[in-house]
Amino acid sequence: MREKEVKKKKSGFKLFKHIKRNMWQYAIALSAIIIVVAISMVMPEITRHIVDDVIVGGQSDKLMMFLGAYLLLGLLKAMFQYIKEFNFDSVSSKVVVSLRRDLFKHIQSLDTSYFDKNNTGEIMARLKEDIDKVWEALSFISMLLIEVFLYTIFIIVCMIRLNVYMAIIPIMAIVFCGITAVRMDKKLDKVFGDISEENAVLNTTCEENIAGVRTVKAFAKEKFELLKFKKHNDKYKELNVDLSRVFVKYYPFFSFISGIVPLLVIVIGGIFYVKGMFGMTLGVITAYITYSSNIVWPMEMLGWLTNSFSEAIASVKKLNKIYDEVSTINDPGDPVVLDKVKGTVTFDGVGFHKEDMHDILKDISFEVPAGKTLGIMGASGAGKTSIVSLLTRLYDVTEGEIRLDGVPIKKLSLKQLRGSISLVMQDVFLFSDTIAENIRMGRRHGISDEVVKRSSKNAGASEFIDKMDKGYETVIGERGVGLSGGQKQRISIARALAKELPILIMDDSTSALDMETERDIQKRLKELTDMTKIIIAHRISSVKDADEIIVLEEGRIAERGTHDELLEKKGLYYETYVSQYGEPAELKEVI
Question: Quick check: pTM over 0.90?
Answer without folding.
Answer: no
